[in-house]
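Consider a concrete sample entry:
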Amino acid sequence: MARLGIETEIVDEKVFASALAWFRKAKIALPTFAQLADPRTIPQEIRDALAKIGPDEAHPLNLFRVHWYNGPDRRAQADVPQHVVLPEAVTGTKAKIVVALGRAFPMIEAHKVLAAYSCLAPRIVTGRYDPTTQRVVWPSTGNYCRGGVAISRIMECRGVAVLPQGMSAERFEWLDHWVTQPGDIIRTPGCESNVKEIYDECALLEKDPHNVILNQFSEYANHLGHYFVTGSALGAIFQALHAKQPSLRLAGFVSATGSAGTIGAGDYLKEHF
């Protein structure tokens, strides 16, 4: 990880010790990127315990479901990440176009829980976030702040969602259920296109040292999480198709740049294929 540019040293020993004591007391274990990239490596006792936990429960074991290998029931692990191969009748091209499905992720049924975990976990293990004194602030127009609030909740951290007041009622209903305090939903002016107003609010919040802003656009760990976890998952899908049709080659990867994180999977695919 050092060659990819992320901190590998503990930045603040006191903050790290505080966080370690917090998670030990709460009996919360944090999965590694390697375990999320290959869930078969998750300890069997955790996998057995997960069988009794629903994918939408606010339970810390759901951290071990923050990967692409959840099955259609969102509980059991699949051998290959869920995907759809679009037929030529739809695409108009003989090339196979494969769509990876993020609907099996826990709590929010979207892969942004992975982005959120990828941003928060490195802060904790390097002593840059203290759950005993600090709030973690998640700015976005929807799924990233939902993912952040979900990850915060199951890690017994205080999460704050910052999003435009014009977003869907369903988003706010979900957030109302998941935040630990009503004031932890901050509504900014406008709708989905009013991103500047979100970060204007974050600039004000950042003046208070008790607030830690996890901006998905600037957290390099967002890229790393998708590099390791999403990249290897997409590679596994290709390898499964290639095993059935050896003439296939991986020609391209398409991703939206909504967080500039998911595109990190493209670097993994270029390096390995």
Q: What stands out?
A: The mean pLDDT is 94.
